[in-house]
Amino acid sequence: MTVSQSTRPHNVITLKRALETAERHGYALGSFSPRYTPMIAPVLRAGQRMNSPLIVQISSKELDRYGITPKEFADEFYRVVEQESITVPVVLHLDHTKEMAVIEAAIAAGFTSVMIDASEKELEENIAISKQAAEYAHRHGVSVEAELGMIGTTDFVETDKDEELYTDPKEAERFVGETRVDALAVSCGTAHGVYMVRQPKIDYDRLKAIRRLTPVHLVLHGGSGVPADMMSKAIKLEGGGVSKVNIATDLELSLLEALGREERMTNAECKALPADRLEQGRAAVEKTVADKMSNFLSSAGQAGTFAL
């Protein structure tokens, strides 16, 4: 299946367009990572059932770990959108990626948004790399997210660093001005993975300072496990808060719990599950996504805020 700007469904939109609407109406979009291609369907079903706009994503590291190509992921996404008559606004997003070759492959496959992550580089190099990615993506009608500061991790699925370096607002102003990225992942206290010893916190003053200096849409990675009231405050900050929240670990945990297993699978193993077990897992993932839309993101019922 080959999908281009002219042939993709009208409700599959860019991240920039999606976040502009979400921010204007005071809610955030969940950026849900199914990690396994059979779990794309329940994520989209939840969005349709809750009448919620959403983002379906996968990171470069997840592609490698679970044994999936960008085209395989995109093909299943577009198959489900078409076969299940998904009509809510949805973005297909490539999360944390360091290689331009992967970004190019994702754009060719029909992704409408990509993330370049050069956050471990010095500021000057991060700007140069992110600017190159933004220019390439924009030429192809695709949105770009980048990261400034370093977001910690607890399980190394999405990223391979556990260091954390909070985003500096003045650096953010320069970074966005020079790179022209559409969204910025900021480090302000959350982490990828499961919170065990450390607890999530959000530096609201830092978010407000970044927002005062730049109009860029803000992204919070590490949404799994953050208390709902804490997230709601970050979304509804005066002047514009967080518009995109990444949720991956919670989805996989609900899937594995429903299957009665602790170990992750490969994508091939997931696809080979008996039909009844697969449906058990899908039901759990759909329930988790619907709950996040209703009780965490305030996005349920908001599909009508888009003029598609």
Automatic annotation (TrEMBL):
Zn(2+) 1 binds at residues 96, 192, 221. It comes from Paenibacillus flagellatus. This is Ketose-bisphosphate aldolase. GO terms for molecular function: aldehyde-lyase activity; zinc ion binding. The active site is at 95 (proton donor). GO terms for biological process: carbohydrate metabolic process. Keywords: Metal-binding, Zinc. Dihydroxyacetone phosphate binds at residues 193, 222-224, 246-249. Zn(2+) 2 binds at residues 117, 147. It comes from the Bacteria. Its cofactor is Zn(2+).
